[in-house]
Design brief:
CATH class: Alpha Beta
Number of helices: 5
Number of domains: 1
Bound molecules: glutamine
CATH superfamily: Class I glutamine amidotransferase (GATase) domain
Strand content: 25-35%
CATH architecture: 3-Layer(aba) Sandwich
Number of strands: 12
Shape: globular
CATH topology: Rossmann fold
Helix content: 10-25%
């Protein structure tokens, strides 16, 4: 099974290493042809504005949009979650997103870099998983078709941090930074080989 990692900016190597550990072939995606014959795609953490800019200059923006609309399974972490959302609050004036997930997110919604934190999360079907949050987006609202697989209470009530809507998954945290492969394993096990 081949799983792509959008390799324009961000923590691409960490996602590749996690897929390697799961025995899954990781493919860097930098141009439209790289999207061919993938079982799924990971959109990494990094800077959503930088990734969005590079999606435009690489020619990937519209091709990837079509693939997402026609059901390419995708897992976005942090900046990747922002790119998959339907609405971004506190984004740049020209910030766009793919609307693959019916969620509204606030960019840097847990505060700036100094407010980054680590915690443990209860993930449906997995149990306790480490959660690393770095200038993470905060989910503000979500639609009825969005399944919440984990929430985190930052002192003001539980907020979804791992969500799934059909074949689109997103986490506000970075499972690729912990050495724990189980969240990627959940996504990978949902993919059909092709
Ligand atoms: N705050 C970043 C953004 O807006 C995301 C941070 C991350 O991916 N660690 O893109």
């Amino acid at each position: 099974m081949r799983v792509g990692v959008l390799a324009l900016q961000g923590d691409v190597a960490e996602h590749r290493a996690t897929l390697d550990a799961l025995g899954v072939e990781a493919v860097d995606v930098r141009r439209p042809a790289d999207l061919d014959s993938l079982a799924g795609l990971i959109m990494p953490g990094g800077e959503s504005t930088a990734i969005a800019h590079l999606l435009g200059t690489s020619g990937l923006r519209s091709v990837l949009g079509e693939r997402l609309e026609t059901g390419l399974p995708v897992f976005g972490t942090c900046a990747g979650m922002i790119l998959l959302a339907s609405e971004v609050v506190d984004g740049r004036a020209d910030q766009w997103c793919y609307s693959r997930l019916d969620i509204a997110v606030r960019r840097n919604g847990y505060g700036r870099q100094v407010a980054s934190f680590e915690t443990t999360l209860e993930v449906s079907g997995l149990g306790t998983v480490p959660g690393v949050f770095i200038r993470a987006p905060r989910v503000l609202s979500w639609g009825p078709h969005v399944e919440v697989l984990a929430s985190h209470d930052h002192g003001d009530g539980p907020v979804p941090v791992l969500v799934r809507q059909g074949s689109a998954w997103a986490s506000a945290f970075h499972p690729e930074l912990t050495g724990d492969t189980r969240v990627h394993g959940l996504f990978v096990s949902s993919l059909t080989d092709r």
